[in-house]
Description:
This protein is mainly β. Strands 2, 4, 5, 6, 9, 10 and 11 form a 7-stranded mixed sheet that branches. A 4-stranded antiparallel sheet has the order 1-3-8-7, with no helix packed on it. It has strands at about 5, 10, 20-25, 30-40, 45-50, 55-60, 65-70, 75-80, 90-105, 105-115, 115-120.
Amino acid sequence: QVQLVESGGGWVQPGGSLRLSCAASGRFVSINDMGWYRQAPENQRELVATITSGGTANYADSVKGRFSISRDNANNTVYLQMNSLKPEDTAVYSCKAGVAFRSGPLQYGMDYWGKGTLVTVSS
């Protein structure tokens, strides 16, 4: 079983910063892509940022220049540094990890999600 646990959410005023963390634990071979997604009330879940195991990052246009994704492969952790936060960034932020397993000669992958952490940006 693989668990993803997010932390770092909370309330912040517009223009402020927060740093989210997501740590993966369990028995697996490796973690491939990791990412952050968010869902605001009455909206669909949307991609915020993703990062490959090699460190290549991809961002939604709405967060480019303000958010930065990074990862610590040794500790199976992904981070999201959020700067210049806006009220429209308010949402539940969830991390996703593509996890690789091995069963005998076979290797396969599965996606796992964390439960999410609430980020509220308001004055």
